[in-house]
Specification:
The structure holds 3 protein chains of 3 kinds. Chain A is mostly helical. Chain A has a single domain, classed as Fumarate Reductase Cytochrome B subunit, CATH 1.20.950. Chain A is built from 12 helices and no strands. In chain A, helix 6 (71-90) packs across helix 8 (111-134), helix 8 runs antiparallel to helix 10 (144-165) and helix 10 packs antiparallel against helix 11. Chain A starts with a helix and ends in a 6-residue tail after the last helix. The mean pLDDT of chain A is 95. In chain B, 51% of the residues lie in helices and 5% in strands. Chain B is mainly alpha-helical. The longest helix of chain B is centred in the middle third of the chain and has 17 residues, at 247-263. In chain B, the strands form 2 sheets. Chain B has a 4-stranded parallel β-sheet with strand order 2-1-3-4. A 3-stranded parallel β-sheet of chain B has the order 5-6-7. In chain B, strand 6 (404-406), helix 20 (410-422) and strand 7 form a beta-alpha-beta unit. Chain B contains 21 helices and 7 strands. By secondary structure, chain C is mainly beta. In chain C, the strands form 10 sheets. In chain C, strands 1, 41, 42, 43 and 44 form a 5-stranded antiparallel β-sheet that branches. Helix content of chain C is 2%, strand content 50%. The chains are: A mainly alpha, B mainly alpha, C mainly beta. At the B-C interface, helix 1, helix 8, helix 9 and helix 13 of B face strand 7, strand 11, helix 2 and strand 32 of C.
Chain lengths: 219, 443, 418
């Protein structure tokens, strides 16, 4: 067990971060090269002003009409994304790791808040799962891979919660937690989770087309 | 769990599609799909397909989805699932039945209005994805008969109504004669090189609605602008090739249009109240030819009327009394942001404007644009049933007092007329020009 | 162009009042001026349904029910499309052609002005008439008419197989061909578009073999190779080869007889022109999206223009090219790749002096017209103006304008500019 722990927390962690960073960069560069090669015209319509205008309207809760029409989804999705991104970075136990491994000092979340945020992520995943099952328009678009992605996102939080509270078999769940986190990290550039990378660009492009050319709102 | 792509229950016979399918082999389908996916598309398609998280939030953006009882097959992403996702997943190895369904979805169940692009949190442009499907079906020879015939008309005559070269100036001279009984010295100046404005229209105007040319001539003459119309092909700004996926022909039509304006040395092109034509000259055909923006600026009629009223060149004698509502056409509102200028014009002309809801960029589509109405009679009910939501929206505004519906777009007009009759709305549908001509001060 | 040596290059200024004609007629349409500048003409209305043409204050002898498309030929005959008793024809200096038609339109003039062709419709059949001689064969439709530069031949795309509007399969099997002097090619195509003719009367045209395969057909025979698109062909005046822009994998190249002539791919390439001495070929190109310029033998000028490049002209010694450019919404002229500093609201086709040393053009700013020569402006702002023309020795410019209701023909020394 110890060897496995050493492996997942050492070389595999380094590999996961490397794959995440290099993979993400690769995907972004690949996208830019593709635009350059085949759709160069896109560059000539890009505008900082309208890119940011669009991005801001879509990162502020309820700023877009569709968010107002789907208030519960809006609340859940904002809660989910905020907790998903903030918790792993500012969790106290992770903060210790950042400092130990890379000598980076970060502010950390109070444990109780981390627990709530972790539960929120898990809860949101349940919500999304229920949405996929219950709503016909989402069910119609859902593939097995969509459930797998939800599972991949939920896994590090579920295992992390179990491991942190040491409810059952701490070492096993700790390894599972690290492993699932690493899998998630490595999956980002190569699955639909890559919307994390591409979202600002699709938004910026649509924002620029709507703002710069069409003189209309896109929210 | 994922639901299989359902087959559309009723198959509407269409000579274009059926004869096209009969000529196809699965190898040709595969090669053509791969040629478009690998050769003609780029980062947009790749990123849109790989980024879509299958959340279904685009659904509420689509009037077909809303009208067909929220049937998920009509949601924007649902249409992509039944077409492009499957083509990509199977690496182009799809069968004829699948392609039949794909062309029906892309050509008749999407107006390319881009409303859904405002509902997708990522801004994925499903209209663009549907245009990729149409491109594939064009290359496979599967385009529906009526719109293909229209593209043929464009290819021969450079207009969408098989109007022959003599019929165009002849019609203008006839309208000029007619209008002289009202304004004796009125002119429709043909081929006047160096005029400020070239006025261009779409094929149906000389073919069926010559009174619109009459009205425009009166408006131009009263406003005292230095204008002209070409007597050669290039007068028609419409472009159904843009909607069939025949990009090469789209470019050819637009080249003729812009070079005609260039030959006449005009400073701008003012076009009649047409939406898709605006799209074709403003951000589709021009781009295919390499022009970032139109080489000669193009002004939709709304903008022209706005300028004329603001500058006091057109004055209103007596405002239109019947309460009106205003339909925002996708191609000049989401496509050009003319919604506020349109309201300025409507308020200047009419006593009472009652807004329909939603409005402006969020207005529901007419369900005729994007080439759908041009697919002809076989699909009439697809778009009338597919736009029940529009009828509901109009009934609601009618209940609040609106009696006249202003729609500054030809496709919108035709689509809304069908909605009007079928659902028994009994509203008067008018172009801005109809009312402006009626209420303006004339000498 | 007629021989300009015989023109009056001595009289500094001549004038003809045009403003007062308003009181003589119901209305006066926009004026046209002869190339030599000696005559100014307008279509005028004299009574309801009665029109004539007023030239230097004199009206044509016979009025017509309708008159439109007033133009001078290069040899300064005044032509118009005229109608009487519901029939249409062309009138030259007030005298109608013998032949009458249901409708006539699109008069085409040979370079020397000697030949005039029109498209005509008679009883729903279409053809062309050259110098009052109509084609013997007529067709169900006619588009893209052309007159050979020497004025000896006419050609147009014609419908050879009657087809219903929605008969798409029949259409795609080919219903259109080209007719030269009324005689049709021996095979149909899906489409036949822009054409070129040489001095031997050979006819080349853009054709579409299917909805997807484009190529050039010469005298009815298509090139062996097909392309994703083609633009207008030209005949090389020396070699006789047919040259046309072709589209391969989304990029444009210049091709000769079906083989790529220029290896450089462009985002756009059209209006190819061979220099007068036949030594180089130039074309208007886009080197990238929204980057327009001119390419000489496949090499693009260094400067690109964002909006539009049009009306390319060679100096007669083939050494210089001038072209209209529109950059950031302003119009100007570029000579040998360098744009003038002056920009305008509109600009007309540049004109070279015979020795190629000077370039002049009619320009418009703030609703007034004037002349520009080598990026220098003439002092006078005018209500109307026509293209300038250089004297044969290149030292003087013929300037035709209207100022305060008077037409002026002026001969101005080139040194007077700027």
């Amino acid at each position: 067990m110890h060897d496995i722990y050493q492996f997942v927390s050492g070389p595999l962690a380094r590999l996961a971060f490397t794959v995440f960073v290099i993979g993400s960069l690769y995907r972004l560069v690949q996208m830019f090269v593709l635009v350059y090669r085949k759709e160069k015209f896109i560059f000539s319509f890009m505008s900082w002003k309208y890119s940011l205008r669009s991005i801001f309207h879509w990162i502020i809760p309820f700023a877009a009409v569709n968010m107002q029409q789907q208030p519960i989804m809006t609340l859940v999705t904002f809660t989910f994304h905020i907790c998903l991104l903030v918790t792993p970075v500012f969790l106290l136990s992770h903060a210790v790791l950042w400092e130990e491994r890379w000598n980076i000092r970060l502010w950390s979340l109070p444990d109780q808040l981390s627990d709530i945020m972790t539960l929120a992520v898990i809860g949101c995943c349940f919500f999304f799962w229920g949405r996929r099952i219950k709503l016909p328009e989402v069910r119609y678009l859902t593939f097995a891979s969509d459930y797998a992605l939800l599972g991949m996102v939920a896994a590090p939080f579920v295992t992390g919660l179990i491991a942190y509270h040491q409810w059952i078999d701490y070492p096993f769940f700790m390894i599972l937690h690290i492993l699932s986190g690493e899998i998630l990290l490595m999956a980002v550039p190569f699955t639909r989770l890559s919307h994390m990378l591409f979202w600002p660009f699709t938004r910026a492009y649509m924002g620029s087309e709507f703002g710069n050319v069409r003189h209309a709102r896109d929210w | 769990m994922n639901e299989p792509v359902k087959k559309v229950a009723e198959i509407i016979p269409d000579e274009g599609i059926d004869a096209g399918l009969a000529r196809l082999t699965e190898d040709r389908i595969e090669n053509t799909i791969l040629r478009v996916l690998n050769g003609e598309t780029g980062a947009r398609l790749k990123v849109y397909v790989e980024t879509c998280i299958h959340c279904g939030l685009c659904s509420e953006g689509c009037h077909y989805y809303l009208s067909y009882d929220k049937d998920p097959r009509y949601s924007p992403a649902g249409k992509v699932k039944q077409t492009l996702w499957e083509m990509i997943r199977k690496k182009g190895r799809v069968d004829k039945a699948f392609m039949r369904q794909a062309v029906v979805i892309a050509a008749t169940q999407c107006n390319m209005c881009k409303r859904c692009a405002m509902y997708c949190p990522f801004g994925i442009d499903v209209a663009y994805l549907m245009s990729v499907v149409r491109r594939i079906t064009h290359l496979l020879g599967l385009t529906p008969q009526y719109i293909q015939a229209t593209a043929h008309s464009h290819s021969v005559n450079m207009n969408q109504m098989w109007i022959k070269e003599d019929e165009w100036p002849d019609t203008l001279q006839w309208q000029e004669d007619e209008a002289r009984s009202e304004i004796p010295h009125l002119r429709i100046p043909l081929e006047k090189e160096g005029a400020d404005i070239m006025y261009s229209v779409i094929g149906p105007e000389p073919k069926f609605q010559a009174q619109l040319i009459y009205q425009a001539a009166v408006i131009m003459n009263v406003a005292g602008v230095n204008w002209t119309m070409p007597a050669t092909p290039g007068w028609d700004n419409s472009d159904m090739a843009m909607f069939t996926g025949d990009n090469e022909l789209m470019g050819r039509i637009k080249r003729v249009h812009f070079e005609t304006a260039g030959r006449l040395k005009v400073k701008k092109i003012v076009m009649g109240e047409c939406g898709h034509a605006f799209r074709s000259v403003y951000d589709m055909g021009n781009r295919w030819l390499g022009w970032k923006m139109p080489p000669i600026p193009v002004f939709h009629a709304i903008e022209f009327y706005y300028d004329m009223i603001r500058e006091g060149r057109i004055r209103i004698a007596q405002k239109y009394a019947e309460p009106v509502t205003f339909h925002d056409p996708c191609n000049v509102v989401r496509g050009r942001g003319l919604h506020e200028k349109a309201r300025y014009v409507v308020n200047a002309m009419c006593d009472t404007l009652i807004e329909m809801h939603p409005n402006r960029e969020h207005n529901y589509c007419c369900c005729a644009g994007g080439g759908v109405i041009n697919c002809g009679p076989p699909y009439k009910m697809v778009r009338i049933d597919g736009n029940r939501i529009k009828a509901e929206q109009l009934f609601a505004v009618k209940a609040r007092g609106a009696r006249t519906l202003i729609a500054p777009c030809h496709n919108c007009h035709s689509g809304l007329e069908d909605i009007n009759h079928y659902y028994g709305l009994e509203m008067n549908i008018k172009f801005i020009g109809d009312i402006l001509y009626q209420v303006m001060k004339k000498p | 162009m007629a021989d300009t040596i015989a023109w009056d290059w001595q009289t500094g200024e001549k004038s003809i009042p045009v403003g007062n004609s308003n009181s003589r007629f119901e209305w006066v349409e926009e004026p046209y001026v002869s190339y030599d500048g000696e005559r100014v003409a307008s279509i005028v209305n004299i009574a309801e349904g009665e029109f004539t043409v007023c030239v230097n204050g004199q009206t044509w002898e016979n009025p017509f029910e309708k008159i439109w498309h007033l133009r001078f030929t290069a040899d300064d005959r005044l032509t118009a499309l005229v109608s009487d008793a519901g029939e249409w024809t062309l009138a030259v200096d007030g005298v109608s052609w013998e032949n009458r038609f249901g409708y006539v339109w699109n008069p085409l003039f040979s370079q020397d002005g000697r030949s005039i062709a029109v498209s005509f419709q008679q009883d729903r059949q279409y053809g062309m008439a050259l110098n009052d001689v109509p084609w013997e064969e007529t067709y169900g439709n006619l588009t893209d008419p052309v007159l050979s530069p020497d004025g000896n031949h006419t050609a147009a795309s014609v419908q050879v197989i009657p087809t219903g509007e929605v008969e798409i399969r029949k259409f795609q099997q080919g219903t259109i061909s080209a007719a030269k002097d009324g005689v049709v090619w021996d095979r149909p195509f899906v489409n036949v578009w822009r054409k070129a003719m040489n001095l031997n009367g050979d006819l080349a045209a853009e054709v579409r073999l299917t909805l997807y395969d484009y190529t050039i057909a010469v005298n009815g025979s298509p090139w062996e190779k097909t392309f994703g698109g083609v633009w207008e062909p030209i005949f090389h005046p020396i070699s006789g080869a047919v040259i046309a822009p072709v589209r391969v994998k989304g990029k444009w190249y210049l091709a000769e007889e079906g083989r790529l002539l220029w290896s450089t791919p462009f985002d756009q390439l059209w209006h190819p022109v061979v220099s007068p001495d036949g030594k180089c070929i130039v074309a208007i190109v886009a080197t990238g999206f929204g980057k327009w310029t001119v390419a000489v033998d496949g090499r693009a000028w260094r400067h690109v223009f964002s909006d539009f490049v049009t009306d390319m002209t060679f100096s007669s010694d083939s050494r210089k090219i001038a072209v209209i450019v529109k950059d950031k919404e302003r119009w100007s002229i570029a000579v040998q790749g360098t744009a003038w500093n002056n920009t305008f609201d509109m600009i007309w086709k540049p004109v070279f002096s015979p020795d190629g040393a000077h370039v002049a053009a009619k320009v418009e700013r703030g609703g007034k017209y004037t002349m520009a020569l080598d990026d220098r402006l003439w002092r006078q702002d005018c209500e109307a103006a026509w293209d300038p023309l250089f004297s044969p020795d290149g030292t003087r410019l013929l300037v035709k304008t209207i100022e305060d209701g008077t037409y002026f023909r002026r001969v101005i020394p080139v040194g007077e500019f700027g």
